[in-house]
Amino acid sequence: MPKIVSNSTVATTDANEADNQPLKVYYCLCGEYILIIDCVLDSLPRRKTDHAIILPRGQRHYKVNVKRGETVMLKRPNGYEKQYRLLCPRCQVIVAYEANPNPSGEYTYILDGAISATQ
């Protein structure tokens, strides 16, 4: 009779340990991950016009999981603003935008209330 060998590994994480990790994950309201970043979003600056969170390209390490949406022109009090919309790949809700398309744009803007730290 052949010898059967099996082994298993159990991995767990303590909630306190997860809070000390350098990377933070943020999710769309549908549960899809949208942003992985090296800081807490509350520490980042916000735009005065729409309170969107500003992600400066090159100053922060982050990855966004989005699908390119439509380009729109918005009327602002001091002129017009072109936005390249970024959508959740699962539910197609607008979660972010860029003033200039990647990779030439300096910033990615996360809409206020569009993502959450809990899944």
UniProtKB/TrEMBL annotation:
Coiled coil (UniProt feature): none
All copies of domain STEEP1, residue ranges: 19-119
Any Gene Ontology CC annotation: cytoplasm
UniProt record, GO biological process: endoplasmic reticulum membrane organization; endoplasmic reticulum to Golgi vesicle-mediated transport
Signal peptide: none
InterPro entries hit by this protein: STEEP-like, STEEP1_dom
Family to which the UniProt record says this protein belongs: Belongs to the STEEP1 family.
Protein name listed in UniProt: STEEP1 domain-containing protein
Species whose genome carries this gene: Basidiobolus meristosporus CBS 931.73
